Structure formats: C-alpha cells, structure tokens
Amino acid sequence: MTLDNVAMDEVLAVVREAVRTRRPCTIATPNLNFVVRAASDPAFRASILRSDLSLVDGMPLVWAGRWFGVPVKGRLTGADLFERLRRSRDPAERLDVYLFGGPDGIARLAADRLNAEGGGLRCVGYRSPGYGSVEAISHPDIIREINASGADFLLVALGAEKGQSWIERNRAALEVPVVSHLGAVINFTAGTVRRAPVRVQRAGLEWAWRIYREPALWRRYLSDGSAALAMLARTSWNAGMARLPFPRGSGAVLSAVEVVEGEREVVIRIDGDWRAPGLGPLRAALQAQAGSSKCLSLDLGAATGLDSAAVALLTLLRQARLDAGRGWHVTGVSPRLSRLCRSYGADDLID
To answer: Do residues 276 and 306 lie in contact, with contact meaning Cβ atoms separated by under 8 Å?
Structure first.
C-alpha cells in the first residue's frame, strides 16, 4: 500500500483545485485496519493504489513509518480534513457536499447540522442506502440523483471494504469531483458518536476512546493489532536483512535510469541506489512510459537499493499498467532486492 506524505494545507489545496477544475479526485484514508485488510485482499489494495491521495489516517502508521526511518509529516485523518473544510467561514470557499451512507436517519441529521451552522460545507443531498449489495446500491437512479445535486464533495460511509468497492464501481459515472470514504465522519457530524478529545487524539489513543464509546469494536482492534504486530516483525526482519553491507569489492553503482525502446518492448534499466530526494529522473522515465502500448520490462539487475518512495513509484506504475491491460514484467531481482521490496509490503511487485 502506498501513502502520501502530505500536510493538511497541501490536501486542502488539492481538494479546492479539483473542485475549481471539476477534475476527479478520490481520497483514501488508510488506517491500521486498511493496511491489514489490504495485505490479504488484492482488490481492496488496488482501490487504495488507484486513489489520487492516500492519507496517513492512523497513529500506528505514523509510528511504523518513523520506526523504519520514513519522515512521516504526521497523522492526517479524513475526519480532520472534513472538519477543516467545515470550519471555513469564507463564502468563496464553501463546498457543496452529498452524504451517502450511514445508518438510517444519520445522514439526514448530519445534513441538518451542516446546513444549520452555515459553515464551509453545505449539504445538497443525502441518502442512507441500507445494507444491500454494492450492485444494489449502485443503481443508475442513485448515481443520477448524486450527480443532479451538483455536489463538490461526496462523502461515502458504507464500511471500509464496501465503501471502497462502491467508489471503484461508480467512479467513472460520478460527476462529483472529490469522492472519499470517511466512515465514522457522518456519525461525528450527526452528533450520534462523539469523537475523542484532542488531547487523546494527539496521544495516539483515539482507538482506545473508540473502544470506550463503542465496546463492540474491541474484537476488531485486537485482531488488527495482532495482525499488524506480525507484519511489523516480518517487515523488520526483511528490512534488516536487506540493509546488510554489500559484499566486499561489489562497489556502489551511481544512480542512473536508461530507457531502451524496441519495436514491441520498452526496457527501463534502473541502476544504483534510489531514494526520495533524487527520484526526479526515475519518476520522469516511469511517467513517460506508463501509457506505452508496448510491453514494459523493468530491469532491476543493477539496482542496489530502493527506499519506500521508490518502491511506491514502481508499485503505482505496475497498477496503472494492469488497469490499462498492458504488458508488464520485472527482471533481474536479486535476493537482497526481493527482501527489500517485501519489507515495504510490495511482494506483488516482484512476484
């Protein structure tokens, strides 16, 4: 799973630009539960990869990033994003929102609250679709209703997997520029569920507050926590093994990327150690070839290292190629590089 290391102001700018240009922008909000599910559900994982933004929504992800030396800017939840938009008092920044999901009656309560406060979000429509299948709640009449509302922001609240699946199924037909599954946000807005106090959020204990307020959640949190600890142990081992010193005399190869284009195939050769500050040439090469109709071959035979940002780039390229139904394969993966990719949870990148 890839995450965007962004700050709130950057996300707000993306949202407002998407609304201004009516450009589609899907925002995912991965937390620990998302990560655990994505590890065993390829379709769910792909839905996160296809999102335009993936926010770091859980403190365990912030802690894990810092554990592995990734300078995460901090936790940025979907609830925080919604509240920042909601608190705006500038009429020029007001956005129209459509609420889709939540228990019966909750969406209406949330809509009434938003419209009564006259803040940065005005509700122009809502629907609680019930507990039918994704197919059943994707009826063309429902999509037409959402589009006819003229909303700028579509808040989906159907449960993580179902919500992501619904967005995947209907995104092409939706005319709302910004779409995000925000789960409990609809309940927070309606006032039926109280969010943790700020000091509890800052301490990274919002999960404990949720259990306190909704005791039935303890089983899910226990299951997710156990799975996450196992993933952390496995990832730490792989990362440690991948970072062992190179054999004596192997030398370090300067970072370089070469594109060799043939009649039917494009080969991208990646040499050396690639890290976030110097990814510009690699990013440019991958973007230039992402839409090629030819088979794409990624040669990692001379690659000595990839940090999380580099692995994320390759993962996104792979997903784009698969979505387009175009050829893709990887060659020259050393055992060391294989362990490194696995340490970042990118097993399918090299399999």
So the answer is: no
